[in-house]
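Entry type: protein chain
Record version: 2
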Amino acid sequence: MSSHWHRAIAELRAQGDAARAAAQRADDASGPERATAKVISYVAGADYLRSASALLRVHLTDRQPPRRLPIARPWPWFRDVWEARAGERRGGVWRAVPRDAALERMRSAPSETLLADVIQQAEALQASLHGERNLDRLYEAFIPERTGAPMANLVGGGGRSAPTLPGFPDPGHPLNRAFPRGDGVRIQPGREAEFNQLSRDRSAVHTRARGFGDAVLALLVEHRSDGLAPQPGRLRGAGRWMGRERQFVPDRAKWPAKLSFFQGVTLAGLSWLVFSCAALPLIFGREADLLSHLTLLLMAAVLIASAGAGLITRHAPKLMKAPGLRAAVPGIAAALVAILVWQGQSSLASYYFAGPYDRYDREYANECLAASPYRHDTIQAMVDDGVLKVTPMSGGTTLRLGPANDGSTHPLQPLDQATRAVLNEYGC
């Protein structure tokens, strides 16, 4: 057995142990930890299924295993959002189910008992995927009877099916469910047994995912590990957080049902700060003469505003949870920073993206030419085709400097020998 296969099988076994332990933890946990434990269980099972599929694929094609098994990586700073998303998708298990091409590859391999077990588990997973895709299509809109019992209506014992949309005769079509023409939704009459079977298949997906992973692990141990199962290897992914749900997704302050006056002050101050920061691309773009790229500037402003709104949504409840006047302190501080940003961004942009006359004063007239005929109050200056021409009123050589463009950050440089000689004379 190669070291690559030894490491891969050891990591797969660690993922299998974590998936089973996480499923048991989800059943035993209580309180606010239960929801997080359930999501960890979903993700750990999906990781086990995904890794088992990857190793089975390289085994059947007689290649070396990947250096790292595929796992889902929780979002580092938005784990609560990731938890909600992973919970809605059952940890991504539906995307990890082996498809028809993978099943055909298994069936075309030399027949043996262990591989037959793997194929059986893969077929069960496909049945679960079929249930996920088709269960909702067994519902229909219906018009209940006024005197009918509510439970009888729901299971098809009363009422009548609502008419379908023109061109979509299937009552379970998504359009007929999105725009129902009835007053309620029920299981289509006569399809209750099919509904129950699809529901059982869909609910069993994680149990079947662990069964598929165990079957693949047994196959790999037999063929790639000489029948000796290695000790569990390094565990990565969400399974590492099993039993540490509060650290994985810490409890966060919730938005109050109704904002008090002081909480409103904080929300207004934070919003003003976000608005001031969102104006930065437009202000700097105007001073840098980049309004021809207005679309990009607006996209940058929208991106800043969206990021600021996300941060407010995430952190504002914690900032405003103090009682009384103290709830307004973060808003007042944010408003003061917003004033500084709003007042300072225009002057800062003007400094970095100064026009040719301001740059001449800053680089020459107020520096090395301050005691010369080329100081600010004794010259005539004009810009001609990107060239700044500076002529002393008392007569003398005309300086030709460039690039003299609005919004440029490049220093003015002499463009001819006469200008360079004058600047050298005054030590510029």
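Comment: Strands lie at 139-143, 160-161, 184-187, 379-384, 387-392, 399-402, 413-414.
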